[in-house]
Specification:
single chain; 247 residues; 60% helix
């Protein structure tokens, strides 16, 4: 049986362009294997590439035969095979040369993005989010909340925006745990498979002293998250379990 997320072999430039545009619209990272039929290292690494594809359905995996698709290979200045590129929003962000299993796993880990993928925000909403993040970093939480609110008015179905505003409410002086909880609940409502939203929900539930519910939220965050986000959720889960005397 074929994998549900098997690498796609690119047959022409039109298919390549459509694949990149589709990935950008879906908020997905693209991982590309530039290979050649005569290249033995390419053949050796191909099963690992396919395995990573089956394990990471939130990433789009493509394969480009450099001899059959010379225009694409030339655009990305591919001179050695295999070469692997990570592409986000149509732009290369990282690459490795050679049949390096650890290297392509690193590309997946570092550039795979959230699971599920998050489509890009409209330009004005993204600008407000960036401004809000800058205020948040400077501990100007009221200003951050104002910018996140502006962004939400433009993109009301973005879980990330509700999650950002939720933690800003908790950091405010004085904090507003009720509004933080409402935003965290909204984040999990609009993006029910986004692990970080449940981590925000757990934090807000702790703030209103609903620790047992927070445990469930953090457990869901652990289940849905990957990498650093998963580790952070695990740490928060252990803290609240310890507080409750659970082992």
């Amino acid at each position: 049986m074929a994998s549900k997320n098997a690498p796609v072999d690119i047959q022409n430039v039109k298919q390549w362009n459509e694949s990149l545009r589709g990935a950008t619209a879906a908020g997905m990272t693209v991982l590309v294997d530039f290979h050649a039929q005569w290249c033995q290292p390419c053949k050796a690494i191909a099963p690992r590439f396919a395995q990573l594809a089956s394990q990471n359905p939130h990433i789009r995996f493509l394969r480009v035969d450099v001899d059959a698709q010379q225009a694409i290979a030339a655009k990305y200045q591919v001179t050695a095979m295999p070469t692997f590129y990570a592409i986000k929003a149509g732009k290369p962000v990282d690459m490795i040369r050679g049949a390096d299993p650890q290297g392509i796993a690193r590309l997946v880990l570092q550039h795979g993005g959230p699971n599920p993928p998050v489509p890009p925000l409209p330009e004005e909403a993204e600008a407000a989010k960036v401004a809000g993040n800058a205020f948040y970093k400077d501990a100007k939480y009221a200003e951050a909340i104002e910018e996140y609110t502006k962004a939400i008015s433009i993109a009301p179905n973005s879980g990330a925006l509700y999650g950002n505003r939720s933690i800003a409410y908790l950091k405010s002086a004085p904090p507003n745990p009720e509004l933080a909880l409402a935003d965290a609940q909204k984040a999990t409502e609009v993006e029910p498979k986004w692990g970080k939203g449940y981590a925000r929900l757990g934090e807000a539930l702790q703030a209103v002293e609903k620790d047992e519910e927070a445990v469930k939220a953090f457990e869901t965050a652990v289940e849905l998250s990957q990498g650093l986000a998963k580790n952070e959720a695990k740490q928060k889960l252990e803290v609240v379990k310890k507080k409750l005397g659970w082992h």
